[in-house]
Amino acid sequence: MRDLLPMVFAAPQEALAGARRVLAGRPTPLHASVAHQVIGIWQRDFGDLRLALRHLRRARDFAARAGSAEREADVLATLGVALVHAGRTRQGMDALGRGVERGTGHTRARVLFRRAYSWWVLGHHREALEDVRRAIPVLRQAGDVIWTARALTLRATVHLALGAVDRADADFTAAEALWGTTGQEHDKADAVESRGLAAFRAGDVPAALRLLDEAEERYAKLGTPTFMLSIRRCEVLMAAGLAAEALAEADAAIKVLDGIGGQSTRKAELLLAAARAARLAGDPHTATARAGLAVRLFARQHRAWWEAHARLVLTEARHAAGRRSGRLVAAAAAVAEQLTALGAPAAPEAFLLAGRIALDLGRAAEAERHLAVAARSRRGGPPLARMTGWAAQALRARAAGSARGVLEACRRGLDVLDDHRMTLGASELRARATAQGAELAALAQQACLVSGGPRRLLVWSERWRATALSAPPTRPPADPALLSGMTAYREIAARAEEARQEGRPVPALEREQRRLEREIRSRTLHMRGEAAGDGDRFDVGTLLRHLGDDITLVELAVPAGRVQVLVCGRGRVRRFEAGLLAAAETEAEHVQAGLRRLAHPGAAARLPLVEAAGRRLEELLLGPAAKHLGSGPVVIVPPGRLHRVPWALLPSLRDRVLSVSPSASSWLRAKRTAPPPGGRQVLVRGPGLATGGAEVPELSDRYGAATVLEHEGATVPRVLAELDGAALAHIAAHGAFRADGPMFSSLRMADGPLIVHDFERLDRSPYRIILSCCDTARFATVGADELLGLVTALLPLGTAGVVACSAPVNDAAVVPLMLALHKGLGAGLSLAEALRDARAALPGDAVHQATGWAFTAFGAA
């Protein structure tokens, strides 16, 4: 009969069914007590907490009737934990205290473990360690493998909460060895989840994501939902720069928890996770609402540790929403002191916040006190804690008027983040992780603007621009599950597209497509970084030598929201001030809308309006610098938020040899990249084009020996095989940009979409690649100043030059542009030179002019 109790975490559904069978008969009080306790545990951890309390109270009553003090002690412990999770903290701890008094020996040790667990839930870590310290020797002496493993896991978790990663790792390792000798499948899943938490605390985000995903699979097989897993995954997602996903996960878990009447304690923790995620996602109002509710719940539950963390997020959200007051400084300082007293690793964040608000209010002395405490964390601990310390040090230096001190602190802080980013294998994670360095990068640029000259501003503009492109992403592993998932994804996507064209409903196919996307993305995020990064720091002198006296590179920096134009060439760097970034973004959207309309015949009357918008855009983006560009080729290096600008539309650039690069460093790498031997050309024609990819047959005749993939032969595996190491590739295929998932932006092939993840499998992408289709030059701007999209996937993999399109275009007008472009390449011109001449060769009507402006040359080939 008592075998039902260990079954709750070995085979939960079987244990539940067995307990119900016992109660359906005529059980003795002792057996009825066990059965009700089993049902109570199941409902407490996986179902309705109200039902759990009802069954556990009956279990307690039957234990009393059976006259077993040991049985009563065990049930009181289970009931106490349930009451704590229900938010009835005093009642729960009283029940646990009575359980400790009633139990003896082995039973008492199990009760002590559960009281330690409750102390941990409440955030009383010292008390938790004391109880579990008393329990472990007794459990070991009794040979109780299961409860010893649970106690070690709990002690490790408490150590992690206090920042003692090494101690936690030792306990997790010991617990895992014990779990391997048992059949406790739920506990084994919990051990995997705990290892994921330990990996995260040690700074290994990919391993944390992999382990948490593995734990989720194990729980799913058991049919046991676990909200703690959602809380931990949210924490890891936020550290990976995926705050919006963390918010969605937390809110979804809250909805499920409310639906089943689950634990009040877990709801409060999920609300805290949602508040943190909303703040990081730039939604201070949602963050304020979630944090405020979490504070109230934690207060009612008498959970001071958790309440202090929720108050920190609430204060951060109010500050992010624009509040500035002495009361807010006092609130942040009070939270900082409370977190310090609790031994919480988050205390430096609170001191940094108090110092930042005090600086906003001009209270220099008060700010210095708080920032000095926060700055201590720069010397040790996890990467993000050290970055907090360096941010505080940078603010101290700025308040003291030391530009040199600001730059040193920013450099040290960004070096820490560099090391952290290079542990990430996925280019998406590397790009998103840069958001954590945005403040340091901005402080450095502002310091350079005040004192430092244009060269220093250029160096710092480059320091944190397009860094995800500085080294190739880790190649996706030859993982059979990943490869089969990508094949299945292509098949489902192709079927969905076919159904749409035939007017058939596609909800089921779209659901399966989204599921496969989640699986592919999950597996790629598990990759650890292998590349050591680009060891060579950007050097202005090297750039100027490669530019020579002919080429001008124009880098746009945006400290404090205003465009600073850095004109590089002829041995010097000059700075000019242009307009506001926000105004330029608005004007760029107007231009994009105009180009979309001009793609259709009959919109010629809008051409003068688009050209006028181009003139306004030039004034905002280049200002007086437009007159200092020289007469040679121009390279534009815009911030991420301006990469959709059709630069050829700007009057001073219209007749230029013009290329665009994500960074000056990227342009230098492209300039140094040698073409592959053999000069192999590949021409690809995808399905469904309005013109049928009419330029491809003509290009095939022109190149003669080119490999041509078209119709049913243009499948993703064949296209990738031919693209690898090619000198020139021309792809005529429908492009689709996915703002919601930029790594799934695609080119449509015969067997489905060719996505960014596919390109990352190439050993070397084509030296030059021409994408003669819509939206291939669209990007998602993420992190501090990073870009995700088709073009940026190619640049770190060996591609030195790309021609792509930033807007929908007229398919028929693309054909003469592409033919003229290839004519220029055949004459030995670069992509930028050939594109300039191809635009000039087009008819002068609005449709052809708009088509020419929509295409951009990227890189230096």
TrEMBL record:
Superkingdom field: Bacteria
Domain CHAT: 612-859
InterPro entries: CHAT_dom, TPR-like_helical_dom_sf, TPR_rpt
Protein name according to UniProt: CHAT domain-containing protein
Lineage of producing organism: Bacteria, Bacillati, Actinomycetota, Actinomycetes, Kitasatosporales
